[in-house]
Amino acid sequence: MTRAERVRALLDEYARQRYQNEREQREREREAFARDPELEALRARSVSLAAQSLRAAMNEPDADKRRAIAGDMRQKGALLNAETRRRLRALGLPEDYLEEHYRCPVCRDTGYVGDAPARFCACFERRLAMGEQSGQGAQTFEAFNAAFVPEENGQRARLLEAKGLLEEFADRYPQARWRNIVLSGAGGLGKSFLLNCVYERVNSRGFAATRTTAYRMFDAMRRRHVGDAEDADGFAALLETPFLLVDDLGTEPMMRNITVEYLFLLINERMEAGLSTMATTNLTPAQIQERYGERVCSRLFDRASALTIKLEGKDLRLHGIR
Length: 322
Ligand SMILES: [Zn+2]
Known about the structure:
Elements: H1 3-35, H2 37-58, H3 63-90, E1 112-113, E2 119-120, H4 122-133, H5 155-172, E3 180-184, H6 191-204, E4 210-213, H7 214-225, H8 232-240, E5 243-249, H9 259-272, E6 276-281, H10 285-300, E7 306-310
Parallel strand pairs: 3-6, 3-7, 4-5, 5-6
Antiparallel strand pairs: 1-2
Helix pairs in contact: 1-2, 1-4, 2-3, 5-6, 7-8, 9-10
The site of zinc ion (ZN) has 6 residues, from helix 4.
């Protein structure tokens, strides 16, 4: 990977992190609101207080009175916040339970700090440098080294078996035994590494392939849905590429009328056209069914054409692969 590609991949990861932060915050909200409905009422009062004050300030020509409105809003807001914190404590929850939590509070998981021209946050620079050291430029079957993988519980044997099947696929594509591949398992087991190996091998044999993340795939779907003319080819390219590799399926945002519908369209059209698709995912088949429904699931795991590999074991990042 070039530096530009690494930056883009890392920015994708940061975007996914932000969506996850929001999801987790909404989940905490749902839980807290269910246990104490007054918390939801307090949230609603805070929102309407801010909106009302803003409107009043905009319609007030006198600067002193505008300041008074702002001061009044702060005071009332502080009272509402204090009551919220008190109620959270009463539930045995942390006071910041309803706020968004960030992996990096400095950049709020955007990867950037400062106004234009913004620069990369220290956390982003660190991650970028880490990727350079661990040699992300060489995610190939040749560079694959199972010596890092713990032998216990058959983890190394399973990974080697997965590698063997994927290498067979990549060497025989497009005449391989399977048309589609789903590589599942928890994070850090080397799924992305293996996806990159397959991509590199197929590419180096002279076949066109497109590698993307679930997040970028979703972005193309969303743009197609809203008719973004500038990116009209994004989704079409995913439909038409002879071999599509999607990393991290399941981490893309779930948006009504988009995610499930377009994913089904994508998989279905590609299968009808006889094109190959590979996906890695942290989700189990049951979770895939729950998230995307039966139609997507039955296409994805179609017995006649799909190879499903499940990796299990310990996080390999701790052992140096990746
Ligand atoms: Zn940061």
